[in-house]
Amino acid sequence: MGFCSGRGGGCILFLLAPVPKRSVRPRASSDADGSGKASTPHHSRAALPAREIPCSWKTRGSVPVPVVLAGRTVRLEPLAMRHAEGLARAGAQDRAAYAYTPVPDGLEAAHDYIARALTDQAAGRALPFALVTTADGRVVGSTRFLELDYWRGPVVWPPVTGVPYGDPLTAVPDAAEIGNTWIAGCARGTGANAEAKLLMLHHAFETWGVRRITLRADARNTRSRAAIERLGATCEGVRRAHSRGLDGVVRDTAFYSVLHEEWPTVRSIIELRLSATAQPPAPFPRPHRSHDDAAGQLLLT
Predict the structure, then answer these.
(1) Is 0.85 topped by the overall pTM?
(2) Nearest to residue 82, comparing CAs of 143, 132, 120, 125?
(3) CA-based nearest residue to 45, from 211, 296, 210, 271
(4) Contacts for 231 with CB less than 8 Å, ≥ 6 apart
(5) Which of 121, 122, 126, 172 could form a disulfide with 146 if both were Cys (CB 3.0 to 4.6 A apart)?
(6) How much helix, strand and coil, in percent to the nearest 5, is found in the chain?
């Protein structure tokens, strides 16, 4: 697998293994003129070179291939026990800010936090990351993909969620959630969270080709809800008495989503926000994708 550097030192996507590409027919358009004719593909912008690193490991499960997602200010590394001390230090900052989010408190709790995340990964339920600063390699938080769903293959009823069709070693989800995100106090306001979301959304929509990314927050968590809304995600509403919160109270949960056709707008919103920071990321390639609802696959045009 060849190596080439990213233009201008911008955001670089490190793939630990090749991801299978999907191909289908363009989706018929019913929004623009109601004609039902196939929509005309947009011309993709010139792609930037990407750097790829061969895969070093992959557990046999339905979870997608682990990856390192690297930007200018933050790098998302597959969560591992070696991150425990860094997570413990990051989690010790501003504990009052973590009322609604599980954050490890101390080294033993960090080891347990990672062990649980890796158990979920081995079972195909999540793909967890450690947030690491590119400047000095400090761990400043964690995030993950979860609620992975697969829509390819034969239609079965009742539906079976979280289980891919075919070889689990090449599993690529059609929908996922970004969640369990927390950032150390020292990294708030630096753009680290926004850049991490940009990297994850780019990987989900441009590499996996998902149709939807979901985000959620305790309805009382105004900080998290405001951060999600600044990304340009659409609020789908609040599910009342949805689950039990960390404080034992039965909580309402606010749900948000980004659809594949909304991704270009959301991407531009995040890039515009990050362009105001001291180290804005370089733009990603903009391949155009269109879906065929009947086939449930993806076309790169």
Answers:
(1) no
(2) 132
(3) 271
(4) 194, 197, 215, 258, 266, 269, 270
(5) 126
(6) 25, 25, 50
